[in-house]
Amino acid sequence: MKFLLLIRVDPSVEVTPEESSPEAWVEEMDGRGVRLQGDPLRPAAESRSVRVRDGQVLVGDGPFAETKEQIGGFDLLECADLEEALEVAAKHPVARFGVVEVRQLDEDHVTGASTHVEVLTDATPEKVWDLITDVARLGEWSPECTGGTWLGGARGPAAGARFEGRNSFPNGDTSTVTCAVTAAERPARFAWDVLDGERIGSSWSYEVSAAGGRTRVRHSFAHGPGDSGLRKAAQRDPARAVAIVEDRLAQIRENMSKTLGAMLGS
């Protein structure tokens, strides 16, 4: 986990250079491998504060926060947890006469994670369109999706229509999700969002175009801000979050390739 230490000092407090020197602390934390980066800042009196009001940029002298303590520097840490970050902060010399503010970075490796595959086929764009929008047959082609059903009286692809998707994963988990069609432009584009309540869990799309006498099909995935098994897995093991996301994206690419292969070969 990454944490930012904001080193807040009160200029009116008199301390000796020896008392305020962070050199020993820096040496210790660099030796432990928890300090990634850090620097002092120029005096607060030299800072500028920027605001935009009614379309106008307003630049003021000095810090925005009118407080006794001002930020004098920062350090970026990589710690196992908050407890270790607090222990490191307590050892900083400024903690004895100022304040060391500890803020965890909001590292969201899941939202926005995306991937895609592209294939060429001899099938016409219209034939491809009929296949990619036939949600009832998804279970015939997909390694994970076991089937789909149109909901609410919908009988086919149309923007705003919804369908249910049923999934089975390699670890034995199953899920049923509601999907909302966001684009249905025959024969060029079919897209939908997997919903997590009012949020978007993920977005999927097919883009179909002519390519020198053949048809190009691009299948895309992007994770949204909603909940998912991938998000839960990354949260359970934050130290491996990046690797977990990359592994899942690789699996999704493989599944999309297998789906397109089975679909276009049918």
The strand line-up of the biggest sheet is 7-13-12-11-10-9-8
Mean residue pLDDT = 91
Helix content: 25-40%
Strand content: 35-45%
First-last Cα distance: 47 Å
Query: Could you list the spans in which at least 5 consecutive residues all have pLDDT below 50?
Result: none
Classification by helices and strands: alpha+beta
| SS element count, helices | 7
Order of helices and strands: EHHEEEEHEEHHEEEEEEHH
| C-alpha Rg (nearest Å) | 27 Å
Q: Using DSSP, what is the number of strands?
A: 13
Q: Write down the overall geometry.
A: elongated
What's the story with the biggest beta sheet? 7 strands, antiparallel
Structure description:
It is a single chain. This protein is α+β, with helices and mostly antiparallel strands and 266 residues long. The protein has 7 helices and 13 strands. A hairpin with a 2-residue loop joins strand 12 and strand 13 (214-223). Helix 6 (229-236) runs antiparallel to helix 7 (241-264). It is elongated. The mean pLDDT is 91.
Task: Map the helices and strands.
Layout: E1 2-9, H1 17-20, H2 23-32, E2 35-40, E3 48-53, E4 56-61, E5 70-78, H3 82-90, E6 99-104, E7 114-121, H4 125-132, H5 138-141, E8 145-151, E9 162-168, E10 174-185, E11 189-196, E12 199-211, E13 214-223, H6 229-236, H7 241-264
Antiparallel strand pairs: 1-5, 1-6, 2-5, 3-4, 7-13, 8-9, 9-10, 10-11, 11-12, 12-13
